[in-house]
Automatic annotation (TrEMBL):
HAMAP family for the chain: Maf (MF_00528)
Cofactors that this protein relies on: a divalent metal cation
Taxon lineage: Bacteria, Pseudomonadati, Pseudomonadota, Alphaproteobacteria, Hyphomicrobiales
Keyword Transferase: no
Protein name: Nucleoside triphosphate pyrophosphatase
Length: 203
């Protein structure tokens, strides 16, 4: 047991995301990162016309369960997020041209990021939920988008919308309504509540 954490083994984060691991560490949760190997596109396609929230939760559940199956006895947290622009769901851009196109569409507009999370142990789903945030991107010129993509390298390809808000992506925005941790893809407050609910955290 460490601090608020009540289990002997650390939480397993079903992701290799450095920012999400950092969010957990800053909240005093011992955690280790393990890639899920889940085919995100396949899950998204199978979700069909589901809402952005439903897709985010489905992705989170798939990741948590995949890692849980490989790590018996361990508590696993899966996280993922989707982007909703006026009812249209965005996915991660497949290349820099796709990232440019996404940024052009988001420029000067407000979109919604939905971050889902799920907890699993021994192949059983214990909990899932989501939270959202609204982000307003400032009007961007074609030259600035080109500069951003040049400076950011491949980082935008790992984020829906073609940006990473925790890094150079902050230059793209004029307003954020919601918790930064939700923007990072880990809705911390509801995750902490869920962990308290199953006895993993002091309460």
């Amino acid at each position: 047991m460490i601090g608020f954490w009540r289990f002997h083994m650390p939480l397993v984060l079903a992701s290799t995301s450095a920012i999400r691991l950092r969010v957990l560490a800053e909240a005093g949760l011992p955690a280790e990162a393990v890639g899920s190997g889940v085919d995100e596109r396949a899950v998204e396609v199978s979700s069909g016309a589901a809402t952005p929230a439903a897709v985010a939760v489905s992705l989170s559940q798939a990741k948590a369960l995949a890692v849980s199956d490989r790590m018996p006895g361990r508590l696993v947290l899966g996280c993922d997020q989707t982007l909703d622009l006026d009812g249209e769901r965005f996915t991660k851009p497949v290349d820099r041209d796709a990232a440019r196109a996404q940024l052009e569409r988001l420029s000067g507009r407000t979109h919604r990021l939905v971050s889902g999370s799920a907890l699993a142990r021994d192949g059983l789903l214990l909990w899932s939920g989501f939270a959202d945030a609204r982000l307003t991107m400032r009007p961007l010129s074609a030259d600035f988008i080109a500069l951003y993509l040049q400076e950011a390298g491949d980082a935008p390809l790992s984020s829906v919308g073609g940006y990473q808000y925790e890094g150079l992506g902050a230059h793209l925005f004029e307003r954020v309504d919601g918790d930064d941790r939700t923007v990072f893809g880990l809705p911390l407050l509801i995750v902490l509540e869920a962990l308290r609910g199953i006895g993993a955290l002091a309460s």
